[in-house]
Amino acid sequence: MPQRKHLRPSRGASLPNTVPCVVHRVHRGTPSSVTVTLDPGAAMPRFLHTPGQRITFCLTLGSSTCYRSYNLVNDVGQLPEVAIKKVAEGGGSALFNEELQPGDILNVVPPSGHLYDAHLDHTARHFLLFAAGSGITPIISIAKHALKARPDHRITLLYANSSVHDIMMRDELEALAHSERLEVFHILGDGATGEDLSTGRLDHAKLSRLMEQFRSVELPETAFQSGPSGFMELVDDVVKRHPIPLPIIRYSFMQQPHLHPQDHRLTDATSDITVTLQGHTKLITDASRRDTLLKAADDAGIAMPANCRSGICHRCKARLISGHTVHSGIQNGRPVPKGWILCCQERPGSSHVQIEMD
Ligand code: FES
């Protein structure tokens, strides 16, 4: 553990509600990914998380402040840890993969998002987990949690990658696989295609055959998936066509802020949203009240300005002209002026909502 007197300069802008965290460890697990462990010091209680939650880094890249969110992959209660794949033209991922060193300080917004409901631990379950590439990060968090939460949870994990060199957090996966309750199927794209289910491109036929092996009626089943859109569509399609229906929960970068219990009466209703953006008005009809206004705009193909998607940067600030909205209940950044809302943090709360953005 580096001493604080040796700390290098802070990397990133400081904003309200960010916590300066010392980079405790940088582990380059594959040629193109890195695992970063942080030490939030006395703020550690604010970093206790639920599976699938992410933290947001406020970074200075060139002359601008940027926000990058990554899933926590550590066990709950241990130092926060993220695994980051280097992506082309990804300034944030390059900083983590190439420049970051132990002792650096990063400004970090504590965990947010909601993926895993606590009720899943009320009974023994068989989790079917599907991941591709860096989509493993929220999935490994669920796997770690489920193994600890109940001695009778069981997990089947399918993890697809281009080659063995691309498997992120391989050591952690191998350690988890010592449990008899976890079964891992690696699919590697660079292998020979043919009858072997574990090599070659994952397609409909191969995944359908794997599903026949995975499914069991011994325990209630729940599926989670995370990965590129093509992978998720394939999994959705195969799971839906299976003779035994299976609820599947998708991880999305557009993870919604946690839904408050008092919001439940609203969740099956829909709303119409009128958005005026730089003088142009569009109507979104039948938007789910489960989704934020930003998610509704994304789904409708409206390019609403947004950066952090976590209530920090205020890029998605809009004037509320009529109707009302329901706040996520989480205050991540500075307060919003009266009459304005953050579209990434608010859901429709009335049959019609009208907003205006500059
Ligand atoms: S996108 Fe940053 S506050 Fe909404």
Word description of this protein:
This protein is an alpha/beta fold. The protein has six helices and 19 strands. It has three domains: 109 residues, Translation factors (Elongation Factor Tu (Ef-tu), domain 3, Beta Barrel), CATH 2.40.30; 133 residues, 3-Layer(aba) Sandwich (Rossmann fold); 97 residues, Ubiquitin-like (UB roll). The strands form four sheets. Strands 1, 2, 3, 4, 5, 6 and 7 form a seven-stranded mixed β-sheet that branches. A five-stranded parallel β-sheet has the order 10-9-8-11-12, with helices on both faces. The protein has a five-stranded mixed β-sheet with strand order 14-13-19-15-17, covered by helices on one side. Helix 2 links the parallel strand 8 and strand 9. The chain is globular and about 55 Å long. The N terminus is likely disordered. The site of FE2/S2 (inorganic) cluster has 12 residues, from loops.
